[in-house]
Amino acid sequence: MSLYHDFADRTAKLISDGVLRPGDRLLSVRQACRTHTISPITVTQAYHLLESRGLVEARPKSGYFVRARLGRKLPEPNMIHPAGAATALAVSDFIFQILDSVRDPAIVPFGSSFPDPRLYPLDKLGRFLAGAARKLDPLATVTDLPPGNEELRRQLALRYLAHGASVAPQEIVVTSGAMEGLNLCLQALTNPGDLIAIESPTFYAGLQASERLGLKVIEIPSHPREGVSIGALADALRRHPIKACLFMLNFSNPTGSRVSDGNKRALVALLNKHRVPLIEDDVYAELYFGREAPLCSKAMDTDGLVLHVSSFAKSLAPGYRVGWVAAGRYAKAVQRQKFATSLATAVPIQIALADYLKQGGFDNHLRQLRRQLAVQEAQFVAGIEEHFPAGTRLARPDGGYFLWLELPQQVDTLRLHEEALSSGISIAPGPIFSAKREFANCLRLNFGHPATPRQREALITLGGLIRRQL
Q1: What does the pLDDT read at residue 134?
Q2: What is the DSSP track for 365-417?
Q3: How far, in Å, CA of 22 to CA of 65, rounded?
Q4: Run of H or E including 339
Q5: 3-class DSSP assignment, residue 308
Q6: CATH architecture of the domain with range 120-362
Q7: Which architecture, in CATH terms, is 364-468?
Q8: Which residue in 40, 205, 322, 394 has the fewest CB atoms around it within 10 Å?
Q9: What positions does the domain HTH gntR-type occupy (predicted)?
Q10: Which candidate, 237, 218, 310, 311, places its Cα nearest to that of 275?
Q11: What is the pTM of this model?
Q12: What are the CA-CA distances from residue 194 to residues 58, 92, 186, 249 (Å)?
C-alpha cells in the first residue's frame, strides 16, 4: 500500500508543480515500472488512486492523462437580477460596431464567436462535398426543398435517438445555420409587439433577431454556472403575456452555464403548464467535457412545445451554414417560414453532411475536439489566474469554448475593448449581451484557439490593461 501511495503522491506533486500539465500523458505502466523499479500492480493502483482524486483520466487504448480541469482558484461571478420590465430593443448598431472589430486576422481573437477552424475535419468534409456535387441528382433541387434532404434529416433523427429523444424526421426542418433557425422560430411564433423571455446575459444574435422582428424582451437572470433561474421565469410567466422563451440550456453563450438535467425537466414542465413554447439554441451541446452528454430537452418534450435549434457550425463544419430545427407541433409553421424567406439550404452541402454522418466518423472527431477544447480551457484559465488582477471572478464551464469574467466594479469593458484593440486584441464586452446594456464590468473570452506564445502574451497585456483602470 505504501509503495503505490508514495508513487501516486510523487506524481500528484509533479502535477501541482506544473511539471506535468493538463493533457500530458503519464508514463505507460511498462515505462513506469522500468523507470521507478516498481511492479505493474503498484503503477496501476497508483493511477487508479490519482483518477479517484480527479487528477488524471484514463483514455481507452491511449493510457492515462493529466485531467484538463484542475482546481477552481477564482470565485464565480455574481448573478445580476435585471429589472423585470419589458424592453424595446435598439441594440443592432451597437453590436455591429463591436463585431466589426474582430474580423481582422491580425487581431488576437479573444472576442470572436468562432473557434479555430483547424480543429475541424474540413479537408475530409471537402472530399464528401466534391463527391456529393458529382453524384447530384437534378431532381434533388426539388425533392430537397424544405423541410430538407431526407437522408440528412434521418441521420439527425438517429442522433436525437442516441441522446434519448424520439424525434421524427418529418419534424426536422433544415436551415441555413442556427441563426436562420432562430429567426424562423420567432417568425412562426410571434407578431411585432409581442413579448418573449430571454436569459440575461444572453447571446447578442437573439437580441438582433428580436429587434428585427419588432419584439419586446423580458430578461430572466441567469446564474453563471447553473443557467437561467427557474424561479424568476415562473414569476415572469405569472406577470407577463410571454409568447415564447429563447434560451441556451447547454454551455450558454456568453457564460458557458449549463442547466442541470433536473432543472431542465422543471423548466419544460413549467412552460407546458403555461402553454408557452421554448426555442432552445443548442449549438454547443456536443462540446461537453465530461463523460456523458447533457440530457436533451426534446427528450422531455411530451407536447411538442420545444423547438430545438442546432447546427454543425460549432461541432463539425464551420462555414458550411447548415443547421436545423426540431420544431415539434410547429414544424409546418417553421417550414412555411423557410419557404417564404430563403426557400432552401444548399443541396450539395446537405448531401455531403448526410454522407459524412452515415460513414460514422463524427463521434470520433467529437471526442478529439472535446479533449482539445478541455485542454485549451485549462491553459487559458491558468493564464487568467496568473496575469489578471485580484478581484477577478471567473465562471468555469463544463463545455463549449467561452469564459465569462466579472472584473472589479470600476473596470469599464467598453473602454477596455477599445484599449485592447489598440494592442491587437479583441474581447467581447459585457454590455453587448444585454438588452439594457448591463454587465459593464464583465467580458466574454474565447478559448477555442490553441495556446500559442502570441496568445499568452495577449493575456499578459490584457491583464495589464485591466490593472490600469483600477
Answers
A1: 84
A2: HHHHHHHHHHHHHHHHHHHHHHHSPTT-EEEPPSBSSEEEEE--TT--HHHHH
A3: 8
A4: helix 331-341
A5: strand
A6: 3-Layer(aba) Sandwich (3.40)
A7: Alpha-Beta Complex (3.90)
A8: 40
A9: 1-69
A10: 237
A11: 0.86
A12: 51, 19, 10, 23
Q: Specify the DSSP element, H or E, that contains 442.
A: strand 442-446
Residue 248 near residue 267 (C-beta atoms within 8 A): no
Residue closest to 69 by CA, chosen among 323, 340, 382: 382
Rounded to 10°, the helix 261-274/230-239 angle is 10
Return the pLDDT at 18. 77
Q: Which CATH class is domain 2-66?
A: mainly alpha
User: How is residue 273 written as a grid cell?
Assistant: 403548464
Give the H or E element holding residue 19.
none
* DSSP per-residue letters across 154-222: HHHHHHHHHTT----GGGEEEESSHHHHHHHHHHHH--TT-EEEEEES--HHHHHHHHHTT-EEEEEEE
- Measured CA to CA, the distance from residue 144 to residue 136 in angstroms comes to 11
Q: Report the candidate in 264, 220, 269, 221 with the shortest Cα–Cα distance to residue 245.
A: 220
State pLDDT tens for residues 74-118: 888 888 777 666 666 556 666 676 667 667 778 999 999 999 999
Q: Which residues lie below 8 Å from residue 156, measured CB to CB, with a gap of 6+?
A: 167, 169, 172, 324, 326, 357
- CA geometry: angle at 314 spanning 312 and 318, to 5°? 70
Query: Is 114 within 8 Å of 103 (Cβ atoms)?
Result: no
Please state the domain extents for the chain: 2-66, 120-362, 364-468
Tell me how crowded residue 295 is: count the other CB atoms within 10 A of its CB: 20
- Per-residue pLDDT of 283-336, as tens digits, reads 999 999 877 899 999 999 999 999 999 999 999 999 999 999 999 999 999 999
Give the whole-angstrom CA distance, residue 198 versus residue 218. Answer: 6
- Asked if residues 313 and 323 have their Cβ atoms less than 8 Å apart, the reply is yes
